TrEMBL record:
This is Putative tyrosine-protein phosphatase OCA1. Putative tyrosine-protein phosphatase required for protection against superoxide stress. The lineage of its organism: Eukaryota, Fungi, Dikarya, Ascomycota, Saccharomycotina. It comes from Komagataella pastoris (Yeast). Residues 39-191 form the Tyrosine-protein phosphatase domain. Belongs to the protein-tyrosine phosphatase family.
Length: 203
């Protein structure tokens, strides 16, 4: 089944009704295709996660009215994604703490890069916000996992959510160990700008 979400007015204007079969015949494709990026999912209100969006996903992203994007991959994003960010005046966070190497780093993510990413996430002045990496699995899963830990989730629930996005290969134990070891007490958060869903869970 297609993941496309189409405008019903487009469907009506480009179709004719067949009384005998009670079906509509679509004579033309819809004018706009709205397709979410790979592994897209809402995390909390106005906070989203995904893999790297491609051109076909841009119409979908426009509907989110994004103010900021966190890019977690070491690799540079595709040119069409950078153009979309520039054309829509989206604040772009990248290379957050990647220059800091510590004993608990994994695949370019370190405690410092997680801390910097979470401090962007806990500030609603950056919302609506998308967190993404190449496939939206391990790096994004690490950041969201640490956010869940900040929210007070137990580690079993954090691991279950992380593994839902990892595909047939499953999760990586190093990711789960990094999440478990991360000290959420290091996060600097201004209560004035913190999301309601976070302040309620940390009381």
């Amino acid at each position: 089944m297609s993941n496309d979400i189409i405008n019903i007015n487009d469907l009506k204007s480009n179709s004719s009704f067949n009384d005998e079969t009670n079906c509509q015949k679509v004579s033309e494709p819809p004018s706009l295709r709205i397709v979410p990026p790979l592994n897209f999912c809402p995390v909390e209100r106005h906070l989203y996660r995904s893999g790297q969006p491609s051109t076909i996903n841009h119409s979908f992203l426009k509907e989110l009215n994004l103010k900021s994007i966190i890019w977690l991959a070491i690799e540079d994003p595709q040119d069409n994604f950078l153009k979309f960010i520039d054309d829509n005046n989206i604040k772009f966070f990248y290379n957050l703490g990647f220059n800091s190497i510590d004993n608990n780093s994994w695949d370019g993510l370190s405690e410092n890069s997680i801390k910097q990413s979470l401090e962007v996430i806990v500030d609603t002045r950056n919302y609506p916000l998308l967190v993404c990496c190449g496939m939206g699995r391990h790096r994004t899963g690490t950041i969201i996992g640490c956010l869940r830990k900040l929210q007070g989730w137990n580690l079993s629930s954090v691991s279950e959510e992380y593994r839902r996005f990892t595909g047939s290969r499953g999760g990586r134990i190093l990711v789960e160990l990094l999440i478990e070891a991360f000290d959420v007490g290091t996060i600097n958060m201004d209560p004035q700008f913190a999301p309601d869903w976070l302040t309620k869970s940390t009381k």
